[in-house]
Amino acid sequence: MTAGEEVLAVSDLDVRYRSGFQAVSGVSLSLARNERLAVIGPNGAGKTSLVSAICGDLRRKASVTGDLRIEGRSVARRRPHVRARMGLGRTYQVAQVFPGMTVLEHLALARIARRRGVGRWLREVKSEFELTDAEAKVIDLLGLRKVLTQRVSQLGQGDLKLVELAATLCAEPQILLLDEPTAGMGSREAENVCEVIETIVALRPSLSIILIEHNMDVVFRVAQRAIVMHQGRVIADGTPDDVRADSEVRALYLGYHAGA
Ligand SMILES: Nc1ncnc2c1ncn2[C@@H]1O[C@H](COP(=O)(O)OP(=O)(O)OP(=O)(O)O)[C@@H](O)[C@H]1O
């Protein structure tokens, strides 16, 4: 497959939580190989719900309808680990980590989980786990070598996000879904995350990225395209410049963010 080809297609996606609340309504989007798409919009717009539905993470929480295709194959009925094997990798707004485990053990866990799905994997996480060359590259890229054997409970929020990103990248996803990778960070840390993303893209030119992000500096630096969500719907889709100039977007979203 070459650049420009569609790697992810979402058609008419609805997410209705068990409470009856509809968080996503009729969202369709297409992601091309090597494309970096930002998803922006006010709090509660449905951005995380969209990404969670793409990954299959809402199976017990919500009814999800519509079609989802990864490289043309429908995955709407596939479990999350099957979608992961087909190339989806995600990180969370608040890093999903096990506080008592070391950074190295997180990588071991990620490797086992992608081989088998969940199950009895925890028993297999051993401290003598050795990094493959590809995993070592990711660790060095994210600057995590010095904390490899530390329990993640000893790390700050910024590093936790990097640990989660490392575990996700080690699965070599084709489509990386980043849920607010700079949430809670200062401008310097956010800049570091942008540099990391740029380096990942340089190393893995075929990677496609969906990035949920409130920080417009990050959006402008990382994304080639942006969609804007409001009350579960996509209200704009274009280059970051296009959406910033859109009057409806300015009124509904950007107007509330100083400096945007
Ligand atoms: N498990 C749930 N049950 C019921 N409603 C939910 C659930 N999870 C999220 N919601 C609601 O769905 C709506 C969309 O939430 P979502 O987290 O997808 O928005 P978001 O755009 O990612 O917001 P933010 O920028 O604050 O992260 C919100 O009104 C939220 O309260």
Instruction: Give me the strand/helix succession.
Output: EEEHEEHEHHHEHEHEEHH
Number of helices: 9
Small molecules bound = adenosine-5'-triphosphate
Low-confidence stretches: none
Tell me the number of strands: 10
Residue-averaged pLDDT, rounded?
87
Determine the fraction of residues in helical runs and give it as a percent range: 25-40%
Distance between the termini: 36 Å
Biggest sheet strand order reads 6-7-8-3-9-10
Protein traits:
260 residues; six-stranded mixed sheet; 34% helix; globular; binds adenosine-5'-triphosphate; ABC_AA/LPS_Transport; ATP-binding; ATP binding; L-valine transmembrane transporter activity
Can you offer a commentary on this structure?
The chain is of the alpha/beta class and about 260 residues long. The protein contains nine helices and ten strands. The strands form two sheets. A six-stranded mixed beta sheet has the order 6-7-8-3-9-10, with helices on both faces. Strands 2-1-4-5 form a four-stranded antiparallel beta sheet, with helices on one face. α3 runs parallel beside α5 (about 155-170). This is ATP-binding cassette domain-containing protein. One of its GO terms (biological process) is L-valine import across plasma membrane. InterPro entries: AAA+_ATPase, ABC_AA/LPS_Transport, ABC_transporter-like_ATP-bd, BCA_ABC_TP_C, P-loop_NTPase.
